[in-house]
Write a structure and sequence with these properties.
The chain is of the alpha+beta class. The chain is built from 2 helices and 3 strands. It has one domain.
């Protein structure tokens, strides 16, 4: 499939949504961290997820994921 739109691409958006939906499974893989919230910016040029976490000391942390699809190379 040739991608015609990259800003954002359908693949970028679908992967970002899948990661959001899997936040419980992701949390189960983290030792000592609880995901408290996931903010999303799906309409951005490259979709972005901001994952808010708390550790065992109840300190807040953030991890930002930016989903970027490389242009097709044929």
């Amino acid at each position: 499939m040739i991608t015609k739109q990259y800003n954002p691409s359908q693949l970028e958006v679908e992967i970002a949504k899948a990661i959001m939906e899997m936040s419980e499974q992701l949390e189960s893989k983290l030792s000592g961290f609880k995901i408290t919230k996931v903010d999303d910016k799906m309409g951005e040029d490259n979709p972005m997820l901001k994952i808010h976490l708390r550790d065992t000391d109840d300190d807040p942390h953030e991890v930002v994921l930016k989903i970027i699809q490389k242009p097709d190379q044929f």
